[in-house]
């Protein structure tokens, strides 16, 4: 037979029990020393069977508080105690187990039972101390305590707290170790006040923690804000400097081109100077039809009356060398003059 599918099961954990597990964990955490100091129990004035009074929980250094609740301690002879070892259970299952144990151990009818318990975590489970008493015995003890005691000489003045009547802030606890409050005797008011005080303390502690976290995080947030502002300023400066950077790049390219041109011109003679030098050296009848400069090599062609003498003139210059005629000198039929082509090289320092 197929087992019914549980839609609330996740890795073997029943999700419907999460709240119970959370409450159980919080209840266990409240028993830790740190949380006991942070979330103390409301002080209670204990009235012992022998008539003396004490404060619960005990105040360090003898400090006195003004309890709002009076708890009457039943004599141990009127209380039936039992100690149980239970596994870790949710609150509902734990309450059912304790109620079943009380019914099994009580010699009184269910409607005549007053009981309470103290549960503590021990090892991997729970230790429950149960106290059981008869409501009739409790009523008789309270009547004896509150009706007979004030008749004693000076007791009302010495113990004003005994003026309270049952039902007006009076609880009933089982005497012994530990003290166990019995349910149904005004303990709900104290528990309500304790929960309200604990919630108030938890809220203030949470607020203090949030403020401390904010205080600790403020320097980092301030640094982050400064970094964001610096990044925004850098982006603005980058946009503003884009035009200047473009102009700088264009100027760099122009300078490079000028340097290239200057290097090119520096490696070659100046054509104007060469032309001026030839103009000064060549006789007036010489007619040039061609002037070509290839680096330091100069080629001139034209017509002259004495081309050989012209070569001698050019070859006699100290800055001209390797003067030669790449082709033969011929006579032009139209003019009767000699046609020549002369090639020579300029000295390296000639411009």
Automatic annotation (TrEMBL):
<dbReference type="Pfam" id="PF05137">
    <property type="entry name" value="PilN"/>
</dbReference>
<keyword id="KW-1133">Transmembrane helix</keyword>
<protein>
    <submittedName>
        <fullName>General secretion pathway protein L</fullName>
    </submittedName>
</protein>
<dbReference type="InterPro" id="IPR007813">
    <property type="entry name" value="PilN"/>
</dbReference>
<keyword id="KW-0812">Transmembrane</keyword>
<feature type="transmembrane region" description="Helical">
    <location>
        <begin position="199"/>
        <end position="221"/>
    </location>
</feature>
<dbReference type="InterPro" id="IPR043129">
    <property type="entry name" value="ATPase_NBD"/>
</dbReference>
<dbReference type="InterPro" id="IPR052534">
    <property type="entry name" value="Extracell_DNA_Util/SecSys_Comp"/>
</dbReference>
<keyword id="KW-0472">Membrane</keyword>
């Amino acid at each position: 037979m197929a087992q019914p599918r549980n839609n609330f099961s996740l890795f073997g954990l029943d999700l419907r029990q999460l709240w119970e597990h959370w409450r159980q964990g919080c209840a266990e955490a409240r028993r830790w020393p740190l949380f006991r100091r942070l979330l103390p129990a409301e002080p209670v004035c204990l009235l012992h069977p022998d008539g003396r009074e004490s404060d619960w929980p005990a105040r360090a250094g003898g400090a006195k508080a003004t309890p709002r609740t009076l708890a009457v301690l039943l004599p141990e002879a009127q209380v039936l105690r039992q100690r149980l070892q239970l596994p870790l259970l949710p609150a509902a299952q734990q309450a059912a187990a304790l109620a079943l144990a009380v019914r099994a151990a009580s010699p009184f009818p269910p409607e005549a039972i007053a009981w309470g318990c103290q549960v503590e975590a021990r090892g991997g489970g729970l230790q429950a101390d149960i106290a059981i008493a008869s409501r009739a015995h409790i009523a008789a003890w309270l009547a004896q305590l509150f009706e007979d005691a004030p008749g004693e000489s000076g007791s009302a003045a010495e113990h004003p707290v005994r003026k309270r009547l049952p039902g007006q802030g009076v609880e009933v606890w089982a005497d012994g170790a530990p003290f166990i409050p019995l349910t149904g005797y005004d303990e709900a008011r104290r528990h309500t006040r304790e929960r309200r005080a604990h919630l108030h303390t938890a809220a203030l502690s949470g607020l203090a923690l949030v403020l401390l976290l904010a205080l600790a995080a403020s320097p980092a947030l301030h640094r982050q804000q400064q970094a964001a502002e610096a990044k925004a300023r850098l982006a603005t400066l980058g946009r503003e400097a884009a035009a200047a950077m473009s102009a700088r790049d264009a100027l760099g390219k122009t300078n490079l081109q000028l340097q290239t041109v200057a290097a090119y011109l520096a490696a070659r003679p100046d054509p104007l100077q060469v032309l001026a030098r030839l103009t000064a050296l060549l006789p007036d009848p010489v007619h040039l039809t061609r002037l070509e400069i290839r680096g330091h090599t100069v080629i001139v062609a034209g017509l002259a009356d004495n081309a050989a003498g012209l070569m001698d003139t050019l070859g006699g210059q100290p800055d001209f060398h390797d003067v030669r005629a790449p082709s033969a000198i011929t006579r032009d039929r139209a003019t009767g003059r000699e046609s020549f082509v002369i090639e020579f090289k300029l000295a390296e320092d000639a411009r």
